[in-house]
Amino acid sequence: MTTILGLSGSLRRASFNSGLLRAAAELAPAGTTITQGSIRDVPLYDADLEAGAGIPQAVQTLQAQLRDADGLLLVTPEYNNGIPGVFKNAIDWMSRGDGLALFRGKPVAVIGASPGGFGTTLAQNDWLPVLRTLGTIPWFEGRMLVSRAGALFDDRGNLTDDKTRELLARFVQGFAASLSRGG
Ligand code: FNR
């Protein structure tokens, strides 16, 4: 069994990116499970909080999910041509404590959806130095840039477009296959 931890970088109820992650989980091939982690309860990073109460429970949960996963799937929105702060904040927290060891050597794929025309290209590029610093192994065989998302998702954020679902299934299949080969 191959396990992938999927994280959406949006807190919005009808988020395109959370919908993209849900669809990826639905479309995962037999033998692969995509666990949908949540960044919702992760507080803003504060070194004083860390020194006092330690790593917050929500972060510890994510770290445990990452420990159990063969790969990580980041589903990123794009804000002002970069990574949304809430998403970077969660990953920064996850890298604390023993977290760096969890990222090191972990295969990571990045996808994203945007109502604009460029489908999170710049946010996906923005992740690259972060993934390098964390010592991950980025998976570059596939690319998934979902643009004009308003026409592809329903008003609850469910991915309804057949062509995009097909491309997503192929993407997840490719990532899962690379994980079962050992990354
Ligand atoms: C955006 N949005 C946006 N979209 C994009 O393609 N490029 C960008 O640079 C930005 N910048 C940006 C800044 C801020 C502060 C917000 C709130 C939004 C639009 C963004 O893609 C849109 O809100 C998506 O719906 C966010 O993803 P979710 O929440 O649907 O997953």
UniProtKB/TrEMBL annotation:
Source species of the chain: Paracoccus mangrovi
A Pfam family recorded for this sequence: FMN_red
Swiss-Prot/TrEMBL keywords: Oxidoreductase
Domain of life: Bacteria
NADPH-dependent FMN reductase-like domain residues: 3-147
Record GO terms (molecular function): oxidoreductase activity
Protein name as annotated: NADPH-dependent FMN reductase
EC nos: 1.-.-.-
InterPro entries listed in its UniProt record: Flavoprotein-like_sf, FMN_Rdtase-like_dom, NAD(P)H-dep_reductase
